Amino acid sequence: MNMLRLNQASHARLPAQLALNGTFEHTLRNNLGVSTTVQMLVLQCSHAVELTASSDQGHSCITLKRPACPERAARFIEGTINGVHTEATQPDEWDLVTEVESTLRRAVVMRQGTQQFTTDDDLDVEVISSPERTCIQVQDTRLCMALPTDPEAAYQQLHDLLQRFLSACRSTAQVA
Questions:
Q1: What is the pLDDT of residues 64-89, one digit of tens each?
Q2: Using CA atoms, how far apart are residues 104 and 159, in angstroms rounded to an integer?
Q3: Domain boundaries along the sequence of the chain
């Protein structure tokens, strides 16, 4: 089997990319000249780094504890593209990033699209992002805001407002 591999330039860029937030593009090639492109979304979370590799074949996600190992990231990207998942989140990494943190950080970094999650008490939450504003929605109740451009400040503001918004939604539901 002629596997697609990251080139040397991609390997050289991975350590710096794993310390940033954002989407990075890598080209993989094999010995027969076949190539494909993968987009790698990197999210700097509180206790780990979350990677999502996306291509025409689909996408996969992995959580890496800090410091994130570039070799593991490379194996993850190559495995995702080749359909051979040799690299996975380790048991001690499973709880490092909550679904809420991942969703909010994704909204802050991407600044487009709709992210969804369900709270422990079964509230369905949508986080709708655009470059201009971000909205949190539970059923027919929506809170919209402009976020700072700094990703960490934006995450903190969004997280704090989410907690207050959910508290208000819960209080309103109990009164009704």
A1: 999 989 999 999 999 999 988 777 78
A2: 7
A3: 5-93, 99-175
